[in-house]
Amino acid sequence: MSVVEVERNNGVMVIRMNRPERLNALGIEMRDLLAQAWCEFRDSRELEVAIFTGTGRAFCAGEDMKESVARGAAGSVSAPTLRENPYNEGTLDKPVIVAINGYAMGGGFKLVERADLRVAVRGVTFESSEAKRWLLGGYDHGHTGGLPHTIATELAFAFRFTSDRLYELGFLNRLVDAEQLLPAAHEMAAHLLTLPPASRVNTLVMMRAMRARVSHELEQLAARLQEHGAKDDLMESRKAFAEKRKPNFKGWNHPDDRLRTPKLNVK
Predict the structure, then answer these.
(1) Domains annotated on the chain, with CATH
(2) Are 216 and 143 in contact, with CB atoms under 8 Å apart?
(3) What is the pTM of this model?
(4) CB neighbours of 244 closer than 8 A, spacing ≥ 6?
(5) How high is the pLDDT of residue 75?
(6) What per-residue confidence (pLDDT) applies to 80?
(7) 148-197, pLDDT tens digit by residue?
(8) Is the Cβ–Cβ distance between 163 and 175 less than 8 Å?
(9) With the CA atoms of 238, 87, 96 and 143 taken in that order, what torsion angle do they form, in degrees rounded to the nearest 10?
């Protein structure tokens, strides 16, 4: 049984993460097969709408911490090979509906954000976990997500949200009971397929162009901030998670480093 299952029917491609025993965590095999599926979707002349979902209690729990610890490096950039992934790169010109069946955490939350339309089961838990993993929490949340600043700040500090609250905030399009998740997603896909093809493509391109983006100045600030602090904490956060213990963070290699926080230079 594959960790990524694909169904193709009447112009709709369903891409399902299928690693329920690991809460659909993003390991090397999962990332590779997802990239293959998204390339097929992009290149197909028959498939026009994608539905992206998961199996079991989670949509996706994000990075596979145990695998990262075993590899000694974090995230997809440390994988032996990197495959093109048009969904992650934002280069698809076809709509994607994400059907969130369970936990969407860390990298799993980012997979939700990249979708064009979002349907979720009531009571599902969301978390932006970057701040827990020695990463820059809030770097894009609130910009690509279009959330109010106070909400984006709460999200950036790894507070958990329910699907009910995110629906009230306008982050989700539909909130449904579990048995209605895929029917609701297919209903949205069916509507999209009734639209003239050029209208569907052009509208999608325009709506994506209207998404807020991180400015060049903030990109530069992010690059500097990601160098601030003890980098050993990057892997310590993962080891502690994998070993189910409290992390022992260094914080800064030298105490005075804390006082050297990069600032945004505004001319």
Answers:
(1) 4-209 (3.90.226.10), 216-260 (no CATH)
(2) no
(3) 0.93
(4) none
(5) 64
(6) 53
(7) 999 999 999 999 999 999 999 999 999 999 999 999 999 999 999 999 99
(8) yes
(9) 70
Read off the tokens for 73: 């490096």
Q: Give the Cα separation of 173 and 118 in Å (integer).
A: 5
Q: What is the mean pLDDT of the chain?
A: 92
- Which tokens belong to 216? 């060049």
Kindly report the length of the chain: 267
Q: Hey, what's the torsion of the CAs at 81, 84, 89, 94, to 10 degrees? A: -150
Distance CA(21)–CA(24), nearest Å, equals 7
Q: Could you give the CA distance from residue 128 to residue 140 in angstroms, rounded to a whole number?
A: 11
- Contact indicator for 141, 147 with CB cutoff of 8 Å: yes
Query: pLDDT, tens digit, for every residue of 62-95?
Result: 998 888 888 777 765 555 556 899 999 999 999 9
Please tell me the distance from the alpha carbon of residue 129 to that of residue 148, in angstroms, as a whole number.
Answer: 19
Scanning the chain, the segments in alpha helix (DSSP H) are 28-43, 65-71, 86-89, 107-114, 149-156, 163-168, 181-193, 197-209, 216-225, 232-242
Beta partners for 98? 52, 118
Is the alpha carbon torsion for 27, 5, 211, 85 positive or negative? positive
Please report, as a single letter, which amino acid is at residue 204: L
Residue 149 CB-density burial (10 A; 0-12 exposed, 13-18 middle, 19+ buried): exposed
Q: What is the pLDDT of residues 4-58, one digit of tens each?
A: 999 999 999 999 999 999 999 999 999 999 999 999 999 999 999 999 999 999 9
3-state DSSP assignment of residue 7:
strand
- The residue with greater pLDDT, 264 or 258, is 258
Q: What are the φ/ψ torsions at residue 137 (nearest 5 degrees)? A: -60, 135
In DSSP terms, 4 is beta-bridged to 17
